[in-house]
Amino acid sequence: MSFTTLVDVATLQSHVDGPAWLVVDVRHQLADTGYGERVYVESHIPGAVFLHCDRDLSGPMSGCNGRHPLPDAGKLAEKFGAMGIGPTTQVVVYDDAQGMIAGRLWWLLRWLGHDSVALLDGGLQAWQAAGGALTDMVPTPSPCAFVPLRKNQLVEAGFVLEQIETPHMRLIDARGPDRFRGENETIDPVGGHIPGAVNRFFKDNLLPDGRFKPAAELRAEWLAILAGSPPDLVVHQCGSGVSACLNLLAMEIAGLPGSRLYAGSWSEWCADPGRPVAR
Q: Which of 53, 64, 144, 238 is catalytic?
């Protein structure tokens, strides 16, 4: 059985030593970019390898392509192969930030055609609450060939601009409501949102303990947000294309597949003063 959205703690505990399973730790903090590596070296789920949000899950910044540009697909595929991700590998990814970083790797793997990837529901906190073991032993990967097959899950800024405020795109912003309104903007140089976007804070997909809401509940909430738009017209964005992946995942859990990501998101959009801004 392949897991393509979520894996619970009990399931991972029963497979954590399995040769066909690979666990990836992507803990990260925007204000302390060395945090993830430090805590990984101290302790992590047994067998887990580490990927860094900035170095591994993002490409170089140019000043106009956002804070977390997508990495080069070919280089990313090489990295996945070096980690030991083959065509039958079940990948489980976790963080300690309510899935905000883990969702990015989930999306990247699916973008390159690897569907057998799932978030650990509830993250590291759920693992520890269930008495899951931790270790400081760093595993030695068994490299293999990762053959990328890019899927049409991505849109660019030009597409968003062309379709802005039209019925051909339902744009959903995953940032907190205050930043969406243009208030308390401390990360990007301009506050506000892309005209026509609606707000769905990524944390609204979660229960108080950090696990995802039941699929039926998510479906009801998302159908209300879509307001009749089909999933394949939905484009997700956030500040830099990271937390938006949690909204995309939530729609998959809800049985509403087919939406896409504007990876440059607000940080790319607002870098061009010629693009419209709403507040």
A: 238
**CATH number of this structure's domain 6-129:** 3.40.250.10
As a whole number of angstroms, the distance between CA 47 and CA 196 comes to 44
Segments making up each domain of the chain, as ranges: 6-129, 154-269
Distance of CA 71 to the CA centre of its chain: 14
Tell me whether domains 6-129 and 154-269 share a fold. yes
* Among the listed residues 25, 54, 55, 19, the one whose alpha carbon sits nearest the alpha carbon of residue 41: 25
Tens of pLDDT, residue by residue over 149-175, are 988 899 999 999 999 989 999 999 999
Above 90 in pLDDT, residue 265?
Answer: yes
Provide the pLDDT for residue 151. 86
Counting residues of the chain whose pLDDT is more than 70, the rounded percentage is 100
154-269 to CATH, choices 1.20.1250.20, 1.10.10.60, 3.40.250.10, 3.30.565.10: 3.40.250.10
Active site residue 64: no
Confidence (pTM): 0.97
Sheet holding 90-94, edge to edge: 6-7, 117-120, 90-94, 21-25, 49-50
Query: Which of 223, 246, 224 has the alpha carbon at shortest distance from 236?
Result: 246
Which tokens go with 169?
A: 């795109």
